[in-house]
Design a protein that fits this description.
The structure holds two protein chains of two kinds. By secondary structure, chain A is mainly α. Chain A is 74% helix and 0% strand. Classes of the chains: A mainly alpha, B mainly alpha.
Chain lengths: 194, 229
Amino acid sequence: MSGNTSLILIIISAALVNNVVLSQFLGICSFLGVSSQIKTSASLGGAVIFVITIASAVANLLYTFILSPLGLDYLQTIVFILVIAALVQIVEMFLKKTSPGLYQALGIFLPLITTNCAVLGVALNNVTDGYNFIESVVSGFGTAVGYTIAIVLLAGIRESIDESDLPSPVKGAPIVLFCAALMGIAFFGFSSLS
Amino acid sequence: MNTSMERIYNGIVKENPVFIMMLGMCPCLAVTTSVTNALGMGVSTTAVLIASNVIISLVRKVIPDEVRLPAEIVIVASLVTVVQLIMQAFFTALNDALGVYIPLIVVNCIILGRAEAYAMKNDVVPSLFDGIGMGLGFTIGITILAFFRELLGAGTVAGFRVMPSFYQPIDMLVKAPGAFLVLGVIIMVMNAWGISSRQAELVSGDGCVGCAAKDNCAACEKKEEEVKA
């Protein structure tokens, strides 16, 4: 029971309390760049959930069984980024072969995820936090869900903003940053949960 | 103006990575809670950027085109590991403050972007100065951001108290939402002065075309939308 409770805590903390975008600033490039439409950002969110969950699992196995026993901890950055890049390629080929529907929906976003710092960030954070295999996967999943929540919400706000008449200096990047700031304040409320 | 001065001017002013190109946003927002952290991050990123530009420019004729990106990533990741080990050994406090953002220099789109857009196509010396210029531009950008956040959010600059004692610090600015807010205000003021009106033409230069992260980056998506419109 206590095991389950702690897993639920990890999910809530990863998705809401320490939201990956709004409080840890990972994956900001795509958060600001791919959030102009709800539909696209939801697909990107789906792809990110998929990749981060698998990447956390693989990174944890590699760290526990290869890097750590051999004393090669300092190679983790190089190994993780290469694993993520390779993994994204493999996932893309696998989806293309086995599930064309899913590939249609997520396909174009997969190559972009390699440079999404949330993926590498989660893998490195899991090692720093000393999570075991299950905890790493759960924390990866929770983080990615938090990313999806944030990017879909921002896309919703931006779709409404497009309709409104803004003063010209605020158009473009500034108004998106202001929306993100307000969302950050709202998500700040979750910190009392911890 | 000769090439090297032109590259430095380009990095600091014309294509400033933080305010004009809006690249490398993650560290830019995350570590700007204090001027000290921002300077530390800026110097580390500059070191990696200069070294990666030089090395990639040196080996660019040896790397086959198909494995260009993996090769660049390995070079950058190795350099970041070196910087991380140096930080752990000699700057422990700064290393603890910057935490996971040091290894994350690997996925900073400025570095791969400059490797793809400039170092892959140019000789060693111009690439070196391109790295210096872009690195300085990034450092100056995030330090300005950190200056305002720390000054208004904590009443200090690099740890020294400068605001009068009756000033009530706006705590929120050094917390997470403040990063978005302050950057938004700075870009808004620049827009109002007409400074970033050059953004559109700049992004159409070679800045984005060869960038590894171009599909993932705010500046380029905006450019593409403008082209479509």
